[in-house]
Write a structure and sequence with these properties.
11 helices, 0% strand, HTH-type_Tx_Regulator, DNA-binding, Homeodomain-like_sf
Length: 191
């Protein structure tokens, strides 16, 4: 039942943002408010469950990548950057702004995690030490990766341009790691 409630909560946010009542959520689910409150004591309780699940899954997926002995360091970097949070459909710029205004504790937690990627930093530092990553300012590199990855939070952009988020993440990682020039880059005529 809890998973069903969480999914209904996420669906409700698509239409109303976080500005809906527990009554409206119960109606969407076709259950009584009592049943809803037997599972979650408040909207904050549901938000915390979504955030906990997201962060735990994100950490788990990242750890699985880092601990995989079959992948090269380059593959680990690529796969770690591409990890999408669980409930990716929940997180978008509009919801984050509403969290910031109405649920500052939850926003702070999400914001901190979305802007602090210690695991990727360690992988990149190892990449610099081993020579597979250019020796550039690591803090700037992390910031570029984070800001570029956070583009996926702009759901409106993806809707307008008919781009799937998973497809965009793959493109973002490819551009970050290999750039935008083709192999014919040296064949471009000078203007």
């Amino acid at each position: 039942m809890k998973a069903r409630i969480i999914q209904a909560f996420i669906e409700e946010t698509r239409y109303n943002g976080i500005k809906f009542t527990m009554d409206e959520l119960a109606k969407r689910l076709g259950i009584s408010k009592r049943t809803l409150y037997e599972n979650f004591s408040s909207k904050v309780d549901i938000l915390d469950a979504i955030i906990d699940s997201t962060l735990n899954k994100f950490d788990y997926q990242t750890r699985q990548i880092i601990d995989n002995t079959d992948w090269t360091l380059a593959e680990k970097i690529k796969k770690t950057i591409a990890v999408l949070p669980k409930y990716n459909e929940f997180y978008d710029l509009r919801i984050l702004e509403q969290l910031k205004r109405s649920y500052p504790e939850q926003w702070e937690r999400v914001n901190r995690e979305f802007n602090q990627w210690d695991d990727i930093k360690e992988l990149l530092e190892e990449g610099i030490r081993t020579g597979i990553v250019k020796d550039i300012n690591i803090d700037l590199l992390i910031r570029v990766i984070i800001e570029t990855s956070n583009i996926t939070l702009d759901k409106h952009f993806f809707l307008v341009h008919s781009i799937a988020v998973t497809e965009s993440v793959e493109t973002i990682v490819d551009v970050l790691l290999t750039g935008i020039l083709t192999e014919k880059k040296d064949e471009c005529p000078n203007s």
